[in-house]
Amino acid sequence: MRRPYPFTAGELLKPGIVYLIGAGPGDPGLITVKGRECLRRAEVVIYDYLANPAFLREAPNAEHLYVGKKGGNHHRSQEEINTLLVEKAGEGKTVARLKGGDPYIFGRGGEEALCLRRAGIPFEVVPGVTAGFAAAAYAGIPLTHRDHTTSLALITGHEDPAKKMSSLDWEKLAGAVGTLVFYMGIANLSLIARELMAHGRPADTPVAIVRWATTAQQQTLTATLGDVVEQAAQSRIKPPAVIIVGSVVGLREELRWFDNRPLFGKRILNTRAADQAAELTALLEARGAEVIEAPTIELVAPENYDELDGAIAELETFDWLILTSANGVRCFFRRLAELGRDARALGSCRICVVGPKTAAFLAAHGLRADLVAAEFKGEGVVAALADTDLQDKKILFPKADRAREVIPTELTKLGATVIAPVLYRNVVPAALPETARAALEAGEIDCVAFTASSTVDNLAVLLGDNLAARLKGVAVASIGPITSKTCRKHGLEVAVEPTEYTLEALVEGIVGYFAGGSFS
Ligand code: SAH
After folding, report:
1. In this prediction, what percent of the chain has a pLDDT beyond 90?
2. Ligand 1 atom with minimal separation from the 239 CA
3. In angstroms, what is the span from residue 121 Cα to ligand 1's centroid?
4. Is 69 considered catalytic here?
5. 29 Cβ partners below 8 Å, 6+ apart?
6. Is 197 assigned a catalytic role?
7. Does residue 446 share a domain with residue 505?
8. Average pLDDT over residues 54-74
9. pTM of this prediction?
10. What's the pLDDT tens digit per position in 433-449?
11. What is the DSSP string of 361-418?
12. Residue 165 annotated to the active site
């Protein structure tokens, strides 16, 4: 039936466009490239309960409208959503209608598209990874396999409430289709199992229920048609979940890969500064952890740049420039650029960095490090430079405000003149993000990763001191001995300290700890 709308496209000057985009099942990596491009172009994003909120960051300047529905508690009726789409596009806007999974699979995308067509609003559909496909893949279940089945059905376990569930042709479904995937079926689980068995599916047919598929909360229950109702009741599995029925479910034990990664199910707090957090987060996520970012450091400019600018003005008179971190490299070259200069200002000044990553950062500025200190602390720099003749050499060491004094002190002893201006300051942010605070308070954090002494001190400040009490039951992972010392100063017991002071080694240490193995 045609629905009356206040206007049609013919009455408008320039209708916009609606992209009906499948956002995938939850893992933000499962949106398509095209879907993300459309999202980035959007002026208005209209999204649902199941779509991952991370997507909204792709369109930070767009208007964000939440129209989700949770269970029967409709936030907005489907009709209101349809009207909203027509209205926003009618104003000439580019609208991204973001829907969980695929827009045309049990998502009422078909109804929205029909509405748009009837109102004369242009639209495009960007398919998505539907929950059933994703749940199967992430649970280790190939939905088809030559030895098991050649057919597959996607079925709603919760039809239009006006209809009876029994309107499904159970006889055909049970007998003619190999793999059955039920969406929205948890409430009707016993009916589904009963009908399938009554129509000839053996009671020992394997069944999997996959909840919150593709996310860190993914839960999978395997059973048989005969005992799934009891098992599901015991484990109290709730929606959103899909139910997969068929012998392919049996392949899961061999094909699991997602929920058996070493840190799966572990919630880890990443305390690094916001602009430095990504690398540790990615390493932990790759091992299956759920990472909550809780920046304890904010990098800000020094009180003034007088000392640094003075040194930069006569940069070519220095024999060595020491940069100890990627941040150091970034801030140094940013200041150089602000002063209207570039790398040529260095003349023949040589460069010493700490660690291969800092060297790689430097390389991005077209510069090769003359010395790469291997040890990830100040002593490494001293050891590396001690092999060169430092008598009467002039060294520039732009540093973080709270850097230890070891580099200037030791290099001065070796005969060098060291100028160590403040390049940036580490300050404590105003507060922890709410998600991190709530998870800590609820005791939902398994491990906290500290990558510098200041991350420990600052977390204590952010949590109102008494860190040991706040982190009771949380495994403490520290990147190296100096950070560990600071942990102990706060009364924390260090559970993980790798021998090599790198993020990779820290993550492997955490993996070892949770595997119950030894680590060092
Ligand atoms: N258009 C969506 C389906 C919407 S219906 C799609 O293509 O995936 C909502 C149902 O999808 C839920 O009741 C549940 O059965 C399923 N679902 C959605 N996301 C899910 C997830 N991450 N894990 C398991 N099931 C999910």
Report:
1. 80
2. 13
3. 27
4. yes
5. none
6. no
7. yes
8. 80
9. 0.79
10. 999 999 999 999 999 99
11. HHHTTT---SEEE-SSSHHHHHHHHHTS--TT-EEE--EETT--SHHHHHHHHTT-EE
12. no
